[in-house]
Specification:
alpha+beta, elongated, 3 helices, about 55% helix, two-stranded antiparallel ribbon
Length: about 70
Amino acid sequence: MQVAAALDELAVRVGIDPLVRVMSRFNGARIRYSLHVWTPNAMIQHRTEIIDLVDITTILRAHAEDVRTYEAR
């Protein structure tokens, strides 16, 4: 559950970061994101193509939920 909690915390921090807010005002604020998590039974892998910076918090929270789902199995 620590990985999921860390992703949630990162989403919060990105959401409140003043620099992210400034960068989000420009159309060029885009990033690429990749997540690889190994569990005893599986490997969770998420990759995104280039996305808007403002969308990363939603993606991080969704990936945290995916990690929790795998950990609960």
